[in-house]
């Protein structure tokens, strides 16, 4: 609203300067139109729509694993199927991978929970490269977490990948999760 008032004052001042207020209200009608357009732009940028092109657009996602338990073996990539938030559509629940919609710094958070007496090894991978290990012990319901800040280029992928040769079990019911958001350039 403050922004609206400032714009209003500037436009009214411009009208007065050019002495057009007297000329049948043409300038005031024009002023309203310009204000409407500016407000639409501000709303689009503030709401962070991916199509707004505004600098404030921040990709962000949160997803949890609803299926439980999930048997993991080999180079398994868990698919956090329950998307709570997916601004910018960077996260794909079908593949379990986050693909950076724009370049910059990102903060991620991963939690895995072990199930039914099986321990659990996972790793954070970027573009197929194993970066960080997560571990949850055999105690049912133990968790392992990782909260890396990563520098990504547009199109880089980040995801969890199973990191042991043994077959293991992972708890879902929204206890295992993954989220991330764009911090800045
Ligand atoms: C993920 O789930 C764990 C519990 O298993 C919770 O402590 C953590 O806060 C959750 N992470 C997010 C980003 O919500």
TrEMBL record:
Question: Where does the C1q domain lie?
Answer: 54-185
What InterPro entries does the record point to?
C1q_dom, Collagen/C1q_domain, Tumour_necrosis_fac-like_dom
Q: Name one Pfam family in it.
A: C1q
The UniProt keyword set, sorted, is:
Secreted, Signal
Q: What span is annotated as the signal peptide, if there is one?
A: 1-23
* Compartments reported by the entry: Secreted
What is the name of the protein in this document?
C1q domain-containing protein
Native source organism of the sequence: Mytilus galloprovincialis (Mediterranean mussel)
């Amino acid at each position: 609203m403050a922004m609206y008032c400032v714009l209003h004052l500037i436009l009214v001042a411009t009208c007065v300067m050019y002495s057009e207020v007297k000329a049948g209200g043409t300038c005031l009608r024009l002023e309203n139109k310009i204000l409407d357009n500016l407000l639409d732009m501000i709303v689009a940028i503030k709401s962070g729509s991916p199509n707004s092109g505004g600098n404030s657009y921040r990709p962000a996602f949160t997803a949890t694993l609803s299926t439980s338990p999930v048997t993991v073996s080999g180079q398994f990539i868990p698919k956090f199927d329950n998307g709570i938030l997916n601004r910018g559509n960077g996260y794909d629940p079908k593949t379990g991978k986050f693909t950076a919609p724009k370049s910059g710094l990102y903060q991620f958070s991963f939690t895995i929970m072990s199930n039914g007496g099986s321990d659990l090894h996972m790793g954070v991978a970027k573009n197929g490269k194993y970066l960080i290990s997560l571990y949850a012990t055999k105690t049912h319901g133990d968790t392992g977490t990782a909260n890396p800040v990563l520098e990504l280029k547009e199109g880089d992928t980040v995801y969890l990948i199973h990191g042991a040769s043994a077959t293991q079990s992972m708890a879902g019911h929204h206890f295992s999760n993954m989220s991330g958001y764009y911090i800045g350039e």
